Amino acid sequence: MADMSRFLDKAYETKEFDELADAPVDALQGVSKADAEALQKALNIKTVRDLATNKYVLWAQAIVHLTHTNAAKKPAK
User: What is the tens place of the pLDDT at every residue in 16-58?
Assistant: First the structure.
């Protein structure tokens, strides 16, 4: 398994990817219980999988990706 420990809370560092996908979002390092509760209340996000597949997250990723793609296409001045 790839070393994902820097992205995870200690309790989840040894879990397999399929377990991590279904773990609560506060398994991610830097996401607190309060953050997880806010995500659940606002967007019904309960798990890492929910976060990763959330339509707003996907839309935001697409916008940022297209920004980088368009910037690469602009001619240098």
Answer: 999 999 999 999 999 999 999 999 999 999 999 999 999 999 9
DSSP code of residue 75:
P
Q: Which residue has tokens 């607190």?
A: 32
Residue 46: strand, helix, or coil: coil
Contact present, 56 and 62 (Cβ < 8 Å):
no
Give per-residue burial for 27-57: e unless 16+ CB within 10 Å, then b. Answer: bbeebeeeebeebeeeeebebbebbeeeeee
Q: Which residue has the tokens 């309790």?
A: 11
Q: Per this entry, what is the length of the chain?
A: 77
Q: Which two tokens stand for residue 69?
A: 């793609």
Residues 74 and 41: their CA atoms lie apart, in Å, by: 41
User: Taking Cα atoms as reference points, which of 17, 14, 35, 18 lies closest to residue 26?
Assistant: 35
